[in-house]
Each structure stands twice: as structure tokens, then as C-alpha cells.
Amino acid sequence: MAEVLSQSEIDALLAALSSGEMDANELKKEETERKVKVYDFKRALRFSKDQIRGLTRIHENYARLLTTYFSAQLRTFVQITVASVDQLPYDEFIRSIPKMTILNIFEAPPLEGRMVLEVNPNIAYTMLDRLLGGQGAIPEKMGALTEIETTVMERVFGKALDTFHEAWKQIIELDPYQEGLEMNPQFMQIVSPNEIVVVISFSTKIGDTTGMINLCLPHVVLEPIMTKLSGQYWFSKQKKTRDEEERLRVEERVKVAKLPIVAEMGTATITVGDFLQLQKGDVIQLDQSIDNKLKIKVGNHLKFLGQPGTHKGRVAVQIDEVIEEGEEQNE
User: Fold this and answer.
1) From CA 105, how far away is CA 86, in angstroms rounded?
2) Could you give the domains of the chain?
3) What region holds the Flagellar motor switch protein FliN-like C-terminal domain (predicted)?
4) H or E stretch at 273
5) N or C: which end of the chain has fewer CB within 10 A?
């Protein structure tokens, strides 16, 4: 936003121009000079601001789903929120996380490539202690996970991927599955060091323990669906969803609507006097031959032609022909 000058600053500027202390042409020249901006090719931006906002919306929902999931699993207070969404080289992400941490490597077909959910050791060991019946204490010395501890962690984070599918389903139907669990970032090479990744950092609190969970999504993995991350696609998708829901509601209401259906055997015209004198056993001659098909009307509109009969001892009409709208019928 451009700086707004006060009245005293405007008066001083006009006075300087009038006295010749400042040259108007020099000011114009400075404005037209090309401004140089430093650009780091190692940090080439692959995600637009609109796409970053789209990823933020998706993972704010993901954070809420993870909060519900871990609260149920750990049976304690859990709060997870999106702290930041940044794009940076993969090598920089690796150098920013602890040398010993919990790295859940997973894939999510139909997207091709690996992604990683990194869990800070404080958070991971608090979860582990709760899952094994403890109060959520952090050990004084954190070493490598035992086979049992690894199995427990793989199971709890493997099921957490179901919430990842749920968070992304408005954009794409994913089928995520866990590929493995690693503790040393140096042994995890999911993309080349200079490849741009987007890192969603979740601020996590479990009981009295706080820490970070980082979700690393490489650009090369998300590239096929980049256009779907824009706000325009997001809102158009929501509108289509609302329109489809409204159409289904109307369709369901129409399906249960009741309409009168009448099968006409024929018609006859008699006088009021004859009508008043009708007795049981009298016969009224209709204007339709027994060889002609019955006219079946829905409301006042002729829709079908059929023939009379019986079905399981009851009077019935068999539909032989459907009358299309606008089709003329001989009376």
C-alpha cells in the first residue's frame, strides 16, 4: 500500500519544488527507472498464492479431522491447527527437521510419488506413551523405536491416512497407504534435493505437550491437480455440489408425489332423465369397441394405451404403448 503523506509533508514538498531544491524531472526519472528484485533460482516458486490458499483450506479441514481422530485414539485433550504453509526446496525441509524424528512415508494413488508426514519426537513419544497405557510422559532419552513401538506407530499413523483421504475428497478421490516409517531424515530421499515441496506445518498440543507435525507434499506429485487448487475451481466445485444436492432433493420429492391414474373403458352420453332412471342391471353402451385399447390417463393427460385383464385375481391393466408428449391420438 502506498504511503499517505500528511498535509505538512505535502506543503514541504511543494515548497522544495518551488525553491528549486528538488527537481521534478529527477523525481520522474527515479520513478521510471527499472526496479531490481533479487531472485533465488534455488527457491523458484511453483505454487501461486491462490494455490497456497487452496492448500491451506484443505489442510485446515485435515487438522480438524486429525484432532478428532487423535482425541479418540489417545483419550486425552488434543488440539491441532495449521501454523503455516510454505514452499521451499526439499533439501531445506530436510535440514529444518530434527536429526531423529518420526517420518511416515506414504503414497496416495492416483497421484504418483511419495509424500511424508513428519512428527516431532516430543509429540510422537507422547502419543506412544498414551497408546501403551501411560500418562503421556516424554522419556529423558529418546532412542530408536523397538519393533513393538514401531508397529504401534505404523498402525496409528496408517489409520490417520483415512482422514487425509477425507480432507481431499472434494478435490480428488485419493487412496492413501503407508509405505514405511523412518527415523533418520538422511535416509529418506523422496525427491531430488532441489525439488520444490510445499510444507504444511501443524501446531500440535497433546495434554501439556506441544510440538509440530509437518506434512511434505512435493510439487511433482501435486502437479497433475494444480489447476484444481485454485479458488475459482474450489468455489465452482462447491456450487456444483450444492446444485447436485438440490437436484437430488427435488428428484426424491418427485418420486414420492402421488398422481391420479385412470384407465378409461370408454365414454357415453345420456340425458339427465335417463341418468336419474338408471337401475341395477341396466346396460350403458360405450363408444369404444372391445378390440380397441384402453386409454390410460395421468391426471388429465393421455400417457399410455393398454388392455384390460386380471393379475392374481385382481382387475388390472397391461400397458402396451407409451404416448410421447405432443403425439396425436385418434379419438
Assistant:
1) 19
2) 47-236 (3.40.1550.10), 290-320 (no CATH)
3) 253-323
4) helix 272-276
5) N
